[in-house]
Write a structure and sequence with these properties.
Blueprint (H helix, E strand, L loop, with lengths): L1 E6 L2 H20 L6 E6 L10 H6 L7 E2 L7 H19 L3 E5 L3 H12 L4 E4 L11 H11 L3 E4 L2 H9 L8 E4 L3 H9 L16 E5 L3 H4 L2 H14 L4 E5 L2 H9 L7 E3 L4 H10 L2 E4 L2 H9 L3 E4 L7 H5 L3 E3 L4 H9 L16 H12 L1
Parallel strand pairs: 1-2, 1-4, 2-3, 4-5, 5-6, 6-7, 8-9, 8-11, 9-10, 11-12, 12-13
Helix pairs in contact: 1-7, 1-15, 3-4, 4-5, 9-14
This protein binds uridine-diphosphate-N-acetylglucosamine.
Uridine-diphosphate-N-acetylglucosamine (UD1) binds next to helix 1, helix 5 and helix 10.
Length: about 350
């Protein structure tokens, strides 16, 4: 069986790392039933600390194709990726195309494959924020529509697909749990303190901001920054900053009272997660990772796809209102129950088993 995996953005490298490892394990155990995986990197994320560092650290197989298509408008990026991925697929003729999550690279990979009648495997299918203003919501809905195998991370994701009529279609839905939970469990032991924090011993809040909703709306960004500046009077705030957020803060001359870091590697974010007091973020992935590490999370968005984290009390959805953010910090609840919401850390193996049974 031949698979082309399309990745492009940071969280996809983490997911691909555990699935590629499961494929390699499978190949060792089943020499007569091999899966050949070739990775295509679209280049959506291209800075060394947004891309290369993940491949090196997690020993992800090197991409066979690097397309170098990052930056630009959404349409231009997606369109250029679509064209180049199609060329690869025509040459490689894979049995499946595997895509992760909800980025422009996800949609480009899925669309290129579907147009060539190559079955699409969507990992992290069925998530919905019900906010069509988010580029990610458009990407994930369209990708689900043209996928043959839908791997959901949660029961809510399965229900979302059923509500959209997917259970009456030929596409197959499997709840395998979350491959990011596999990654957190597997790599936790390798977590490493960022060099820039070597003299840092205070307790701290871990903060990330990168969503277009927050970075492109100056009003929202100013509210978040003002809340963080207030919070920093009580607690150290550590903020690894996405290049786009960094650029806006700089160009607008905003003052952020925080220890601002370059984007950190996966092993470094694991250290920050393990050692922080709480997490404030607009990232989808980090909301869950906070949960994996039993940390309270305050989500700087108006909706979340990870509704179980909110229902269980570990995550508060507050948007970008300074007062609400600070109130949420006061309202953090200790000693909450921690049900296993995202599987048991063997999602990648389950995914490979389903693929193999399809042959
Ligand atoms: C993308 C995904 C988002 C995901 C995030 C993970 C889409 C629509 N969004 O958002 O779902 O949560 O990745 O991080 O696909 N930039 C750099 N260097 C880089 C990468 C980006 O400077 O290595 C700058 C570029 O100027 C770019 C901007 O950041 O225009 C935004 O990058 P882009 O890939 O469009 O979206 P993300 O915000 O990273």
């Amino acid at each position: 069986m031949k698979i082309i995996t399309v990745v492009g953005a940071r969280p996809q490298f983490v997911k691909a790392a555990v699935v590629s490892r499961a494929i390699i394990e499978h190949n060792k155990e089943h020499p007569d039933n091999q899966i050949e995986e070739k990775i295509v990197h679209t280049g959506q994320h291209y800075d060394k600390n947004m891309s290369d560092v993940f491949f090196e650290e997690m020993e992800i197989p090197r991409p066979c194709y690097t397309l170098g298509i990052g930056g630009g408008s959404h349409g231009a990026m997606t369109g250029r990726q679509l064209e180049k991925i199609e060329e690869v697929l025509l040459k490689e003729k894979p049995d499946y195309v595997l895509v992760y999550g909800d980025t422009n690279s996800t949609l480009a990979g899925a669309l290129a494959a579907a147009k060539l009648h190559i079955p699409v495997v969507h990992v992290e299918a069925g998530l919905r924020s019900f906010n069509m203003d988010m580029p990610e919501e458009i990407n994930r809905i369209l990708t689900d529509q043209i996928s043959s195998l839908l791997f959901c991370p949660t029961e809510t994701a399965v229900e979302n697909l059923e509500n959209e009529g997917f259970d009456k279609r030929p596409s197959k839905i499997h709840n395998i749990g979350d491959v990011m939970y596999d990654a957190a469990k597997f790599y936790e032991a390798k977590s490493v303190k960022p060099d820039a924090l070597k003299d840092q011993t205070n307790s701290f809040a871990l903060v990330t901001i990168h969503r277009a909703d927050n970075t492109d709306d100056l009003g929202r960004l100013k509210e978040i920054v003002s809340a963080l500046n207030e919070l920093s009077k009580k607690m150290t705030v550590i903020c690894p900053l996405h290049p786009r957020t960094h650029n806006v803060i700089k160009s607008e001359g905003l003052n952020l009272d925080a220890i601002v870091l370059e984007p950190v590697s996966y092993f470094e974010i694991l250290w920050l997660l393990k050692n922080c007091e709480l997490v404030l973020t607009d990232s989808g992935g980090l909301q869950k990772e906070a949960y994996f590490f039993k940390k309270n999370c305050i989500t700087l968005r108006d909706q979340t796809e990870w509704v179980e984290t909110v229902a269980s009390g570990w995550n508060q959805l507050v948007g970008a209102n300074a007062q609400k953010i600070l109130l949420a910090v006061e309202n953090v609840t200790e000693n909450l129950e921690w049900p296993e919401l995202y599987g048991d850390g063997t999602s990648a193996k389950k995914l490979v088993n389903v693929l193999i049974e399809k042959v």
